[in-house]
C-alpha cells in the first residue's frame, strides 16, 4: 500500500496526502495526543468543521488575551465534542465561529455565531448541572472573544457576554453547582484578566447606570477575597528565579503578581478620585510602586530589537511598565516630563520592538499615550498596523482612535499642563461605545 500516516487504517482506506481525508487524519492524531484520556465524539463534526478546529488550534495571533490558553483549549474541545447536547453545541459553534472569523471573515462566521447564540440561549433555560454550567460559561466567553475580535459597531456586545459569564457563575454558586471550568486554574486566570481589563473600561468610559453585576469580580463569585480587600499583595516565590517565572505564578497574559497589582490600581484610581489621597490608600499605592520597580530591576534592559525573550516574560514586563506609568501619572503626581518617567516610556517602546512580543491593548494604550515625539508616534502606528495585518481583524481600530485622541489632547494643551485623570477620562469617553483593553 502507499505510504501514509496510517491513522486512517481503521477506515480500511489508503491515506491520500493530497485529499481532505489526510487533513482529517492529522486532526484526529492531534486531538488524541497525550496528556490524559480525552473523550471526543468526532462523528459530531464534518471535514470542513474539523479543518476549522485545526486552524484555530494552530493560529497564533500574538495577542494572548484574544485566545484561551492552549491547555484550556484542550478542555474546551472536550466540551465541544463531548455529546450532542445544546450546551456542547454552543461551545462547538463558538469555537467554529472564532476560527471562521479569522480564516474567512465575519460573513462566513456569522452563521456559526448565530447558532452559538441560539444554543446558548436554549441551554440557559435548562435545569443547571455542573457540566451544563461549565459549558454555558465557556460558550459565553467564546462569544465575548468574537465580539472583541470583530467589534459590533452598534454597541459594546462584548460587555454583555462578559457580564453573562458573571451571571452564570453567580447563579451556579447560589445553586451549589459550581462550574468545573471555574475550578480550573487556567480558566479562572484567563477570565480574571479579561474582567480586570473590563473594569478599566467600565470606570473610565463610565456608561450610564451600569447593572451591579458589572462590578462583581469572578473572585468574589467563587468566594475568594477581592484584591483590594486583601491585606497584602501576592508575594513572589523567592526560592525560584524571578526572571523565569514559575509555573504557579503564570497567568494567561502576565504574571499573577503583576495582575494583582493592576487590579489594585484599577479599584483604587478613578476619574472622580479626590486629588488628596487618604494616607492608607496612598501607602498601599506606594507599596505597589515599590513592587513594580523591583520587578523591573529583575529584568535586564532591552539592548537589541532582535533579542529573544519568552513571550510570557515579555508580556509581564510590558504590563509592569504600563502599570507603573499609570500609577505614577494617575495617582503619584508625575507630570510626565521627569527623566525617570521618560526612561520608563522609552523602555516600553523598546520592548515593543523585540522579537516574539505579545501585543495586548492595555499596555500599548498606556505607553502610547505618553509618546510625545513624532518618531515614537509613527512607531506606535506601525506596530498596530502590523498587528491588524497579522490578525486580519479590526480589533485595534478603536484603540488607534483613542491613542490618536490622546495625542491630539496633548498637542492642544501643550504648555498648559493638564490633569492626567481628566485627560484619560476625556479620551476614553470619545469612544462611540465602551472600549475593551484585553
Structure description:
- The protein is mainly α and 438 residues long.
- The chain folds into two domains: 191 residues, no CATH class; 205 residues, no CATH class.
- Helices cover 58% and strands 0% of the residues.
- The protein is built from 17 helices and no strands.
- The longest helix has 21 residues.
- The N terminus is likely disordered.
Number of helices: 17
Radius of gyration over alpha carbons?
Answer: 23 Å
The total number of structural domains is 2
Low-confidence stretches: 1-39, 224-249, 303-308
Strand content: under 5%
Approximately how much helix is present in the residues? 55-70%
> What general outline do the C-alpha atoms trace?
globular
| Succession of helices and strands | HHHHHHHHHHHHHHHHH
N/C terminus separation: 51 Å
Mean pLDDT: 78
The largest sheet, given as strand count, sense and whether it forms a barrel, is: none
SSE class: mainly alpha
Number of strands: 0
Q: What tags apply to this protein structure?
A:
about 450 residues; mainly alpha; about 0% strand; Fun_TF; transcription cis-regulatory region binding; DNA-binding transcription factor activity, RNA polymerase II-specific; nucleus; zinc ion binding
Amino acid at each position: 500500500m502507499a505510504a501514509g500516516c496510517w491513522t486512517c487504517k481503521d477506515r480500511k482506506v489508503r491515506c491520500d496526502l493530497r485529499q481532505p481525508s489526510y487533513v482529517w487524519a492529522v486532526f484526529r492524531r492531534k486531538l488524541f495526543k497525550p496528556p490524559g484520556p480525552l473523550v471526543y465524539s468526532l462523528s459530531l463534526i464534518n471535514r470542513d468543521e474539523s479543518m476549522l478546529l485545526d486552524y484555530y488550534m494552530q493560529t497564533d495571533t500574538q495577542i494572548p488575551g484574544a485566545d484561551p490558553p492552549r491547555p484550556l483549549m484542550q478542555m474546551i474541545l472536550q466540551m465541544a465534542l463531548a455529546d450532542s447536547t445544546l450546551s456542547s453545541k454552543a461551545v462547538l459553534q463558538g469555537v467554529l465561529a472564532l476560527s471562521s472569523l479569522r480564516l474567512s471573515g465575519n460573513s462566513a462566521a456569522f452563521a456559526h455565531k448565530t447558532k452559538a447564540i441560539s444554543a446558548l440561549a436554549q441551554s440557559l433555560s435548562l435545569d443547571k448541572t455542573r457540566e451544563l454550567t461549565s459549558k454555558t460559561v465557556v460558550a459565553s466567553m467564546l462569544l465575548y472573544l468574537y465580539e472583541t475580535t470583530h467589534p459590533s459597531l452598534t454597541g459594546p456586545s462584548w460587555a454583555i457576554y462578559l457580564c453573562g459569564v458573571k451571571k452564570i457563575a453567580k447563579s451556579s454558586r447560589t445553586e451549589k453547582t459550581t462550574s468545573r471550568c471555574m475550578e480550573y486554574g487556567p480558566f479562572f486566570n484567563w477570565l480574571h484578566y479579561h474582567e480586570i481589563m473590563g473594569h478599566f473600561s467600565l470606570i473610565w468610559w463610565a456608561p450610564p447606570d451600569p447593572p451591579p453585576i458589572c462590578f462583581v469580580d469572578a473572585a468574589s463569585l467563587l468566594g475568594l477575597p477581592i484584591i483590594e480587600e486583601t491585606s497584602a499583595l501576592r508575594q513572589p516565590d523567592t526560592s525560584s528565579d524571578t526572571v523565569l517565572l514559575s509555573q504557579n505564578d503564570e497567568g494567561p497574559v502576565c504574571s499573577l503578581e503583576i495582575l494583582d497589582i493592576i487590579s489594585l490600581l484599577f479599584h483604587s484610581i478613578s476619574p472622580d478620585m479626590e486629588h488628596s489621597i487618604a494616607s492608607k490608600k496612598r501607602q498601599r499605592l506606594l507599596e505597589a510602586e515599590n513592587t513594580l520597580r523591583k520587578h523591573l530591576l529583575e529584568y535586564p534592559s532591552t539592548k537589541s530589537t532582535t533579542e529573544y525573550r519568552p513571550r510570557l516574560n515579555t508580556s509581564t514586563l510590558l504590563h509592569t511598565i504600563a502599570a507603573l506609568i499609570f500609577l505614577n501619572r494617575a495617582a503619584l503626581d508625575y507630570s510626565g516630563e521627569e527623566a525617570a518617567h521618560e526612561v520608563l516610556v522609552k523602555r516600553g517602546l523598546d520592548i515593543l520592538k523585540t522579537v516574539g512580543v505579545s501585543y495586548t491593548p492595555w499596555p500599548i494604550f498606556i505607553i502610547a499615550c505618553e509618546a510625545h515625539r513624532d518618531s515614537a508616534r509613527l512607531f506606535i502606528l506601525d506596530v498596530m498596523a502590523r498587528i491588524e495585518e497579522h490578525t486580519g481583524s479590526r480589533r485595534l481600530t478603536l484603540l488607534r482612535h483613542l491613542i490618536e485622541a490622546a495625542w491630539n489632547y496633548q498637542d492642544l494643551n501643550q504648555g498648559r499642563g493638564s490633569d492626567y485623570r481628566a485627560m484619560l477620562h476625556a479620551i476614553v469617553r470619545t469612544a462611540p461605545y465602551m472600549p475593551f483593553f484585553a
